[in-house]
Specification:
Layout: E1 6-9, E2 13-18, H1 31-35, E3 39-44, H2 52-66, E4 71-76, H3 79-88, E5 94-100, H4 115-120, H5 129-141, H6 143-154, H7 163-168, E6 173-178, H8 186-195, E7 199-204, H9 211-214, H10 216-231, H11 251-260
Parallel strand pairs: 2-3, 2-4, 4-5, 5-6, 6-7
Antiparallel strand pairs: 1-3
Length: 280
């Protein structure tokens, strides 16, 4: 693989970052620096390689060139299909895998007709103008390249024959998916999780296909911690605490805080007096 198409950062056990179509390596701009203190982050740019099978072949070639015998993979979007081809296609090199907004190995992935439209439906939270331009820059230079990549995916650029390997694998897999993903629907993530018994599936509320934009503050530290625990198998060093809100807060939390401003005594409900049971 050409040197210009590869970026490496940090030192330690290798983590391979595989981007998807059409957002490229820019999707990892926040996560890679976060991992670089503990891992060797390897980020190939596969934008000029069309087709999942061709990309998987390029990744295998890269792994061989770098002499990597064991690695973790973090993949976004259709890069997850490439990751599955590498991990379950016979090569015994992927020790742990994080699949973010990933489709399964088969079935079409439907994208809007233009990169601008694809970006518009892929996020929930606002994206900085500089990041939006970075996502779109390459496709604006060559609009026909976007059309070719989209056509390949919609035709079903599948990776067949992985079912048995996926079902038999004991390597850990973390699957993260936005509840509001309008590119890869939630049902696909559920089916992918069911196909890989060793996987853990988490849905992130109020997030779309660009999870690493919509919810990076939550899932960025989670991914690094998961890699530390499941890939490095390292004990927790108590280096810091990350607070995660895993579901929407009940209304009484904010109400209690508002009432507390007007009363001498805090109005936070006593947990021992709260009813616990199914929602009405």
């Amino acid at each position: 693989m050409a040197e210009r198409a590869l970026t490496t950062t940090g030192e330690g056990d290798p983590v391979l970052f595989l981007h998807g179509f059409p957002f490229g390596v820019h999707v990892f701009r926040q996560l890679v620096p976060m991992t670089a203190g503990r891992f060797r982050a390897i980020v190939p740019d596969l934008s000029d390689v069309e087709g999942v099978s061709a990309q998987a072949a390029a990744v295998r070639e890269l792994v061989d060139e770098l002499g990597i015998e064991r690695c973790a993979v973090v993949a976004h979007g259709t890069g997850g299909r490439v990751a599955q081809a590498v991990a379950f296609g016979g090569a015994d090199v992927v020790d742990a895998m994080v699949l973010i907004a990933s489709p399964g190995p088969t079935g079409p992935v439907l994208f809007p007709a233009s990169p601008d439209e694809a970006l518009e439906v892929s996020h929930i939270e606002p994206i900085a103008r500089v990041d939006a331009e970075a996502y779109l820059e390459g496709w604006r230079r060559d609009p026909r390249a976007f059309a070719r990549g989209r056509a390949a995916l919609e035709a079903g650029d599948d990776v067949a024959g992985l079912d048995a390997a996926m079902a038999a694998s004991e390597r850990p897999v973390l699957i993260l998916h936005g509840e509001d993903d309008r590119i890869v629907e939630a049902g696909i993530a559920e089916r992918l999780g069911a196909a890989i018994p060793a996987s853990t599936l988490g849905f992130v509320p109020e997030s779309g296909h660009l999870l690493l934009d919509d919810a990076f503050a939550s899932i960025g530290p989670m991914i690094v911690e998961w890699l530390r625990a499941r890939y490095l198998r390292a004990s927790h060093d108590h280096g810091g605490v990350t607070m995660l809100q895993l579901e929407r807060r009940p209304a009484w939390v904010d109400l209690a805080r508002a009432e507390a401003d007007d009363e001498a005594e805090p109005a936070v409900p006593d947990p021992t007096e709260q009813e616990v049971g199914p929602n009405p």
